Amino acid sequence: MEFPTTQLSIYAEDMIRESLAQSRSMNIDSVDQHEFEVHHRKEQFVVNILNRTCSCRQWDLDLISCSHTCIALSTRNLNLHLYTDKFYYVSNLINLYKKGTRPIGTVNQIRNIHQGGNDGILPP
Ligand SMILES: [Zn+2]
Questions:
Q1: What stretches of 10-80 adopt beta strand conformation (E)?
Q2: pTM tops 0.90
Q3: 23 C-beta neighbours (distance < 10 Å), count
Q4: Does pLDDT of 82 surpass 70?
Q5: Among 79, 60, 80, 73, which residue's Cα sits nearest to residue 15?
Q6: 21 Cα: distance to centroid of ligand 1 (angstroms)
């Protein structure tokens, strides 16, 4: 089955949808071409769409748009999917699992393997 290359996983779509909904109650000021100040209640966040950063750190760490990023990208009419890491693209997830996954066994099977040993972990 072929998916458009920028189609996001359901998980990512849900996260972005939630962020977009949250962003509707925010106000935004443009600092320059790439940087924005986003105001939400009494908090203030700085989004830089060129560096793909937000001071809340979600965009930097999870590589998926936070609500502050959503409002900034929407202000510039930029496609949210293109600013989400390729990791979340369906096409990449399919490639990741193409080789198949091996079952890891039951808890008891795992316990039997490690019985009697200290699992190689030594006390400090
Ligand atoms: Zn943010």
A1: 27-30, 35-40, 43-48, 53-54
A2: no
A3: 22
A4: yes
A5: 80
A6: 14
Token pair 């079952």 is found at 103
61 CA to middle of ligand 1, Å?
11
pLDDT digits (tens, 9 = 90+) for 10-19: 999 999 999 9
Q: What is the pLDDT of residues 1-52, one digit of tens each?
A: 555 667 899 999 999 999 999 999 999 999 999 999 999 999 999 999 999 9
Distance 68 CA to ligand 1 centre (A): 4
| 61 or 98, greater pLDDT | 61
Ligand 1 center to 81 CA (angstroms): 16
CA 90 / ligand 1 centre spacing (Å): 24
Ligand 1 centre distance from Cα of residue 66 (Å): 5
> CA 78 to CA 98: how far, in whole Å?
32
Centre of ligand 1 to C-alpha 30, Å, is 15
CB 3 within 8 A of CB 91: yes
3-state class of 4 per DSSP?
A: coil
CA pair distance 96, 83, nearest whole angstrom:
21
